[in-house]
Structure to design on (602 residues):
């Protein structure tokens, strides 16, 4: 099929439909709004007029999504910053009932109203829970629009396999920019769900009720399977690297340029790019240790103010057997500049930038 | 004449306080749905409140919604299962206080769902705090000197609001009580109307039911009956505010 030039938010929406998405509820918020706008006319075009709701707020949207998913739909909502905060309670409920759904977070920078700069400050929230209680969504962190399309296309198959929420960790620039992408064909769920509400009372929501150990075991079994089966990462020039950058999304693209520039100067640098950030690719670090145990340090490049993913990088490095410093360059809001990353790298070599762990 | 006591097929046991009005309403819902041939074609979206101690009384497809969000969840379900009877069952705190946005917006969009709300003029589940439906001067755990409407607003009238405000075009809005045989039968007719409206695709229907909360009112069931037929009903008139077209 021919490639089309599409905006990230639109490509994500179309890929969701191709992947079987047949319910959407959301409320406008920049920089995610194009997804809502696109689906508002695309779903009617596909005969799904009633399956699109511009909701009164984000709280209602996530609760609509939960209802729709429980009734058998492949349901999605999309938002950013404050809007996702409003969805936190609903996401916790969805986790409690093991409701599969997809959440697209097109991140902006900052706390409060934040700003429209691209951001990755929601790493903790998306990867560590966000709502109350113990739970996780599977969190995809694509670094170009094609990868986001492919991730979105797979999202409900994975969500339904484990009965878990899936979060697309997008960001303002990825949502707003355009790239040539190839859209996959429309597909439907392969076999009927064996749970859910259809009015007959024959299936039901099927999760252990109460607060006993059977619930805990149900949860652990599910999340442990996900941890075993869903770790994904990519290596770039790691075999002989002294320093390994770790980054996701747009900062990872900046790091690719950084690597090319530094390699041209004879500096041995590489990158480990997590493609899914929960579960975090601990196995990737173990493989890296087998391939190259001589790494001298890790540098986590992130679009936030204090560094968040760096905590997981440090834990994964330690668990893999690396006993080396872990540095962080949190660049604030906006995609980091290649020369700024190179300057930080130089600071590390010069002993000016101290390790975080 | 022999009187046969018929228990609806989908009715189970509950753990509500003695004299609580919730149980009667749950039974009425199941009687009506069975009579309409919809016993095996219903999804109950229940709010958070004392109904949580009675969900086992609803042996049907059920979704325990987040506090206040039942209407939103019900909308999501109904859009996917348009041929199933989808209704919310919520206390007044759930439906009108924390859930004011979701409830009004569902009514505003005239979603084809039914809302059954239980108005016992307080938050029963959490021990009897003030709700938006608490009567002026009523003593609750958070209005120990009686509700001060200057500071806390006036009693909230959802059925009247959605029936008569410009911009709303709901199918059916009514308020009943379950204080005696006559009012129980009247409320049952209201519930039937509400579900029939949904089955005909007429849009949003709501039946609010005034019920007793002997535990938090600190009254005997008889005293509760008396209170409902006097002060509660004089604030909240029983009747149909929006009749079916
Ligand atoms: C977000 C949230 N806030 C608060 C609560 C605590 N809570 C549970 S039930 C309830 C009030 C219920 O009152 P009402 O809806 O009137 O129902 P009733 O118990 O009187 O039947 C509250 C405040 C909660 N479960 N969730
Ligand atoms: S506390 Fe009140 S509303 Fe709750 S079960 Fe008891 S009587 Fe009913």
């Amino acid at each position: 099929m021919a490639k089309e030039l599409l905006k990230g938010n639109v490509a994500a929406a179309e890929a969701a439909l191709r992947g079987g998405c047949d319910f959407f509820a959301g409320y406008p918020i920049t920089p995610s709004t194009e997804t809502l706008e696109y689906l508002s006319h695309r779903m009617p075009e596909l005969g799904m007029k009633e399956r699109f709701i511009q909701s009164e707020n984000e709280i209602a949207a996530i609760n609509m999504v939960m209802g729709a998913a429980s009734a058998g739909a492949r349901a999605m909502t999309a938002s950013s910053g404050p809007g996702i905060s409003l969805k936190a309670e609903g996401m916790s409920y969805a986790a409690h009932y093991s409701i599969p759904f997809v959440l697209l977070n097109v991140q902006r920078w900052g706390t409060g109203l934040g700003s429209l700069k691209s951001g990755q400050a929601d790493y903790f929230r998306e990867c560590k829970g966000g709502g109350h209680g113990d739970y996780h969504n599977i969190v995809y962190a694509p670094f170009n629009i094609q990868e986001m399309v492919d991730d979105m296309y797979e999202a409900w198959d994975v969500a339904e396999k484990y009965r878990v929420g899936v979060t697309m960790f997008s960001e303002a620039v990825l949502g707003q920019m355009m790239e040539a992408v190839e859209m996959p064909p429309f597909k439907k769920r392969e076999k009927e769900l064996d749970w859910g509400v259809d009015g007959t009372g024959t299936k039901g929501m099927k999760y252990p009720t109460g607060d006993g150990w059977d619930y805990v075991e149900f949860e652990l079994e599910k999340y442990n399977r996900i941890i075993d089966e869903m770790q994904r990462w990519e290596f770039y020039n790691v075999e002989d690297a002294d320093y390994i950058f770790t980054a996701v999304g747009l900062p990872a693209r900046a790091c690719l340029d950084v690597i090319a520039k530094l390699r041209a100067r004879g500096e041995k640098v590489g990158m480990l790019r997590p493609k899914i950030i929960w579960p975090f690719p601990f196995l990737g670090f173990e493989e890296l240790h087998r391939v190259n145990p001589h790494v001298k340090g890790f540098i986590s490049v992130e679009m936030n103010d204090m560094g968040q993913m760096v905590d997981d990088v440090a834990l994964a490095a330690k668990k893999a057997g690396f006993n080396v410093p872990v540095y962080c360059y949190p660049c604030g809001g906006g995609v980091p500049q290649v020369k700024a990353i190179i300057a930080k790298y130089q600071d590390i070599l010069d002993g000016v930038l101290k390790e975080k762990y | 004449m022999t009187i046969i006591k018929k228990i609806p097929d989908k009715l189970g046991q509950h753990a509500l306080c003695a004299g609580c009005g919730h149980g009667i309403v749950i039974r009425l819902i199941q009687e009506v749905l069975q009579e309409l041939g919809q016993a095996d074609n219903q999804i109950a979206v229940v709010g958070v409140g004392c109904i949580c101690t009675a969900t086992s009384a609803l042996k049907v497809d059920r979704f325990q919604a987040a506090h206040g969000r039942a209407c939103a969840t019900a909308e999501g379900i109904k859009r996917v299962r348009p041929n199933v009877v989808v209704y919310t069952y919520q206390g007044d705190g759930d439906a009108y206080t924390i859930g004011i946005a979701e409830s009004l917006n569902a009514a505003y969009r005239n979603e084809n769902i039914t809302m059954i709300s239980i108005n016992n003029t307080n938050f029963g589940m959490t021990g009897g705090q003030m709700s938006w439906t608490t009567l002026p001067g009523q003593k609750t755990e958070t209005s120990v000197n009686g509700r001060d409407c200057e500071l806390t607003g006036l009693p909230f009238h959802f059925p009247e609001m959605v029936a008569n405000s410009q911009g709303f075009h709901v199918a059916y809005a009514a308020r009943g009580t379950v204080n005696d045989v006559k009012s129980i039968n009247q409320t049952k007719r209201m519930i039937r109307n509400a579900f029939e409206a949904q089955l005909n695709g007429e849009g949003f229907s709501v039946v609010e039911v005034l019920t007793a909360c002997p535990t938090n009112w600190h009254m005997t069931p008889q005293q509760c009956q008396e209170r409902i037929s006097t002060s509660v009903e004089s604030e909240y008139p029983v009747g149909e505010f929006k009749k079916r077209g």
